[in-house]
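Lab manual, section 2.4: Encoding a predicted structure.

Procedure: take the sequence of the chain (325 residues), apply the prediction step described in section 2.3, and record the output as structure tokens. A sample record is shown.
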Amino acid sequence: MSVIRSVVTGVGAYLPPKVVTNEDLAKFVDTSDEWIVERTGIRQRHQAADDQPVSDLAFEAAKEALEAAGKTAADVDLIIVATTTADLTFPAVATIVQRKLGAPVGIAFDVQAVCSGFVYALSVADGFVARGHAKCALVIGAETMTRLMDWSDRGTCVLFGDGAGAIVLEPGEGQGTTDDQGMLGFALRADGTKQDLLYVDGGVSTTGTVGKLRMLGNQVFKHAVVNISEAIHSAAANAGVEVADVDWFIPHQANQRILAGVAHRCGIDEEKVISTVAIHANTSAASIPLAFAHGVKDGRIKKGDLLLLEAMGGGLTWGACVLRL
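Recorded output:
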């Protein structure tokens, strides 16, 4: 049976030039390289310049993804940006990226699910593309998380970095089997009762301020490994594949211990895990597309590979996606 799938035809990434090492942080935060690496696996992160809004990062990643797909801005009819750190309260970052790209009038909006935002955005874009409502979609994860840091909170401020990643989705014809290219299965979850484990203590309708990120790291770790593992198995079941069949596991880059814990719980060989947490830190909604682009550029991820994506973030939100490149 012939079906229309939303197929990834291009990936792109952008990291701000400024690199902040653990040693750099130790100059003004009560921490050390050894302490950070032992607990998180992070060695450095990128930081956006003061005059560099998140739309600039998204724009650069989008340009690279379009070039990889052999498309131009004129082809784009849908832009979805997953972000927690928008330029402005409104309009959406997606509309600003649309303007900066010079893309024509189309659909453009943001998705806010924190670190899970890119998986959520992929699911939304799949709904447009696979049903014929968009022919060339840009799905972008972009964050300037360092703007939300309380630099006196050494357990949290060392975890995050800035960056953006993007993919192009286009419709492709499949046969309705797991050999098809494109999106094969999703599992999305949220539990608002866990809000206090990971949140920002400011907002438009409460404090009128941006606020700072607050996290109970040990509690988040406990929920992450269990909840993400369940979503992974659900997404694989929805896709009609076994987790063991996956060629590459592209997780949200939160913490190397979480990556290892989830992989072990799901029976995924560590050699199949795309890990960039050491060089990118946690870039929230940008972490999956950044790692995706990293794996494509270094030649590990190839056309036809079966990929598993997963993330968990504030809300708590979490989810997983299975696709064939």
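Check your result against the sample. The mean pLDDT is 97.
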